[in-house]
Structure formats: structure tokens, C-alpha cells
Amino acid sequence: MLGTTEALVKTTMTNTVRTRRSLQVITSLVLLGVALSGGACDQPKIRCAATGGETAVRYKIVGDIPDACKDLGFPGTEGQAANMNKIGIETYVPVPTDEDAYNKKNALSLKLAWIGERIADARDHLDQENYPYTGDPPDTLPPDSNDTNFPFTYGKFDDINPGARDVCKVSAMTPSDMTYPAIPKHTFENDDGEEETVDAQDETKIQYEFSNVRVIVSPDSIGTQTFADLSVTQDDCTLKYQVSMLYPFVDCGAEHDGKVSGDEKKCSANATDENPFGSGIGEGIPVSCENIGTDDDPSYACLPNRMSETDK
To answer: pLDDT tens, 118-135?
Structure first.
């Protein structure tokens, strides 16, 4: 079970927002093999892992959009932006004090950010500290029994180290299958001190799973690019996507004369006078600054151009 054999690298599973220091944390964990391998003079092998945090996502719908999906706000459906929903990624590593830690596989968790936002809203603003659970929540992460009663998906990497094309695969992930209780209309004070209203949300059943997960892990890009297939079912709606995830999530919007537009320079990995540390996106990763909002309410982010590790 996870509590005794693995350590969790995260802030909280209900908060997918992370800072760039996550990259340094995961880098250190991936390279932990220097100490654990037992051979100080040997070149340590890089380990399969994903840099934890909130990712920018390019979605590609697979198949038709059922009528039941058209009013649920999924990416690319009628009236919705194609690439608006983020996905949170976390990596789990073996406990460093385990003498056999270097020979054990890391694990991966993926979570739809909008589900995390619903949970955080109920817990922070309605004092429902156990939401979405109506009783006491489980006190562990999914054990080997493949429990789906968690708001995130989870699975171990197929191998300890990357394979061909620097790819780390996760062939099997435990899906998430939960019912989320209704949330009443409510108001709260946001960080700017302004009153914000959240509309009522009906009870809903959501099942989602990721498959064919591939993470690029190389010395210059440690788990910052992830590709997968995603299936989401909410009540009577089922949608399938190909998804391409990129860490970190970088806002590339710029305001001029009261209008927001995209600034491609903000996506550059190279340092500039305006951005002395660069975007944080790995050098050589092809990205574009695109509107992930709507024409009436634009919001720009640096999106990955590739949908697969084999794309140019």
C-alpha cells in the first residue's frame, strides 16, 4: 500500500497549482539514483517521473460530440474554448530510506483541474471539509486493489528508466469514478477583496481515465511533456480526447490599449530583458501562444504544438 512504500511529492491533491520550484524538486528526486545506486563513479540512469504541477493542455476530440455533452462545458464543445481546461500532474517516488528504492518504479497521478476547483470551492467557501465525500474520506491513496473512489487517476510507470525516444510509459491507470454532491449558490470574498458569486451546481457523476500515457524524460526535459488518451463520462455524456500536456503553465497574454492579445515572446525559453529567466519551458519544445479563452473573454497561454512524441 502506498502509505508504507512510497512518498508523495505534492502540496494537496485538491490544489493543482504549483510553482516552478516543483521542477527543481522533481529533478532532485529523479536524480536520486546518484546516492542510491551504490556506485558513485557510475553514470546514474535518469528515472521516469513527471514534473508536478498544473499543465497547459492541447485537446483533440476523437469522434463525434454527443448531444448530451453540448451543455456541460467540455473543451471544444459548442460555445466552449478548445484548450481551456488544465490538468494537474503529480509524481510519487519510493521512500528514500528504503534500501531497495532505486529498484522500484515511480508512479504518476493525473487530475482534471476543474474537478479540483469544484472540490476546493466546496471545502474553502462552504466549510465542506470532506467534499466530495459525504462521510470520512479515505486516508490513503489508491492501493493495489484499484480503488476508483478518488478524484484523480493513478498508475505506476511501466519501467524504472526511459525507453526509446526518452519515453516513459504508464500503460495502466486506475480511473476516477465518483459522485459529486450538489453545491448551492454562494458568494465569497476573493483575493482582491471583491465579492464573487458561484452559481448552483447539481449533483453529478463523473468517471474519467487516462490511457496510453507517455512522458518525455530526458536530461533537458525531465517530465515536462506528457501525451495521453482521455475518456470522460459525466452523467449521460461521454467524450474522448487526445491530450498533450506541457509544464509549466505559462500565461502569454499582454494588454495593449485595454485589449488582451498574445505575446509569443513570453513563451520563449531564452532570457530577455522583460523576462530574465525565460518562460521556464524547456528549450527546443515547440509551443505557440494561443487564446484558451473565448473571443469575448480572451486568455492566452503557451500551448504545446505536438500531439505525440513522434510529431516534429
So the answer is: 999 999 999 999 999 999
Among 56, 87, 18, 110, which residue's Cα sits nearest to residue 246?
Answer: 56
Give the C-alpha separation, 82 to 291, whole Å.
Answer: 9
**Other Cβ atoms within 10 Å of 162 Cβ, number:** 22
Residue pair 68/236 in contact (Cβ under 8 Å)? The answer is: yes
- The grid cell for 220 is 533537458
What DSSP assignment string belongs to 101-131? GGGS--EEEEEEHHHHHHHHHHHHHS--TTT
Confidence category of residue 144, pLDDT binned at 50, 70, 90: low
Strands 176-180 and 167-170: unpaired
Torsion of CA 21, 22, 24, 29, to 10 degrees: 150
Q: Is 209 helix (H, G, I), strand (E, B) or coil?
A: strand
Counting beta carbons within 10 angstroms of the beta carbon of residue 283, is it exposed (0 to 12), middle (13 to 18) or buried (19 or more)? exposed
Per-domain boundaries in the chain:
2-247
